[in-house]
Design a protein that fits this description.
Elements lengths: L14 H13 L16 H12 L6 E5 L5 H9 L6 E6 L13 H4 L2 E5 L13 E7 L7 H11 E11 L5 H16 L5 H13 L4 H9 L1 H21 L3 H24 L1 H28 L3 H12 L4 E10 L2 E11 L5
Helix pairs in contact: 1-11, 2-3, 5-12, 6-10, 6-11, 7-9, 7-10, 7-11, 9-10, 10-11
Length: 342
């Protein structure tokens, strides 16, 4: 069933591409998807939002976290000390790698269960299993009509729903557009990445005296070096005074510089493999940003999701705008029984 104002998410990738991209991202050990904005876990108004949600949990409740990533929300709950007997099931379509769980006491670890390869549209849980269903920057990436139906199915009769969702005008969405623009610039024909691929075999030859002599005598190598230097200077100019664009460009610049410096030691095959890995990482970053922008919700889409989640239930609705350091970071949505706490 389709609800007015709500559209299924329109991912820019096939599911396999999405899984590979996010699995690669979570394998880095990142706790959440906003690493550049928070030193560790979420804080400020985001943490306050979740503290309010957790305060409503019964002591021995069961919670489901959808699109959990590396478990930022389960960790927030456990570290808060709220609802100490809660049992948590955390699901994600990608392969996740929550390293922080190794620091938990065994009795706490036993209450946290991560499930990889799970679609929000087909949850592997019985009806009415959870007192709380949560998602942070995740459920909006799914087919919302199908996932909303699944949330309603697994939610206990007096259960609550709490979501932090991408807003079309939020800082993460704006930064996503910036990153896409910088990736377009880097990947343009005869741009820095293409020139780097031309220069790399010559640099790899510098590992032997004979190879060094060939490179020094080759005018094509000299031209390739000059072309990369020109592209690096253009990058410096583009990044200067632009913190948002500069962060993307400087990261790529640093990766290329490290690869160039190591290429003579690595040899041609391994140097090329390093460049391919960088290009793959950039391609997957592009896919993630495209999805973020496509799946962010405006007012009408949020209202459609609220209606879908509330269908057949009498739920109190609280919608808020979540801000961190005066920047809009998303929608906060809480749905809980009208008689909750009475």
């Amino acid at each position: 069933m389709q609800y007015p104002g709500m559209q299924p998410s329109t991912p820019a990738t096939l599911p396999t591409d999405r899984n590979q991209s996010w699995s690669r991202y979570w394998a880095t050990g990142a706790l959440h998807s906003c690493v550049g904005s928070f030193a560790d876990n979420y804080d400020g108004q985001i943490a306050a939002f979740w503290s309010q949600v957790f305060s409503r949990l019964p002591t021995a409740a069961r919670m489901l976290d959808i699109a959990t990533g590396n478990g930022a929300l389960p960790r927030l709950l456990l570290e808060s000390g709220q609802a100490p007997g809660v049992e948590i099931d955390a699901v994600d379509l990608a392969d996740v790698a929550p390293r922080w769980t190794s620091r938990l006491a065994p009795e706490v670890t036993a209450r946290v269960h991560f499930h990889c390869g799970v679609r929000a549209e087909a949850l592997p849980f019985a009806d009415a299993s959870f007192e709380l269903v949560t998602s942070q920057y995740g459920i909006e990436y799914t087919d919302l009509a199908a996932s909303a139906a699944e949330v309603r199915r697994v939610l206990a009769p007096h259960g609550s729903i709490a979501l932090l969702l991408h807003h079309v005008d939020s800082l993460p969405v704006r930064l996503g557009r910036v990153e896409l623009a910088e990736l377009d610039w880097l990947e343009r024909p005869d741009g820095l990445l293409e020139r780097a691929g031309t220069l790399l075999p010559f640099l790899a030859d510098l590992g032997s005296p004979a190879g060094m002599a060939r490179v020094r005598a080759d005018p094509v190598a000299a031209h390739a070096r000059l072309a990369v230097n020109e592209a690096m200077q253009a990058l410096d100019s583009r990044a200067a005074g632009n913190d948002e664009a500069g962060a993307v460009l400087r990261e790529v610049q640093g990766s290329l510089a490290a690869l160039f410096n190591a290429s003579a030691r690595l040899g041609k095959l391994h140097a090329q493999a390093g460049l391919n890995a960088l290009l793959t990482g950039l391609s997957q970053a592009r896919l993630r940003q495209q999805e973020l922008i496509a799946c962010a919700l405006d007012d009408a889409q949020l209202q459609g999701l609220v209606d879908a989640l509330s269908s057949g239930r009498r739920l109190q609705r609280e919608v808020s705008l979540i801000r961190i350091r005066d920047q809009l970071f998303g929608w906060g949505l809480e749905l809980y029984p009208i008689d909750h706490g009475q």
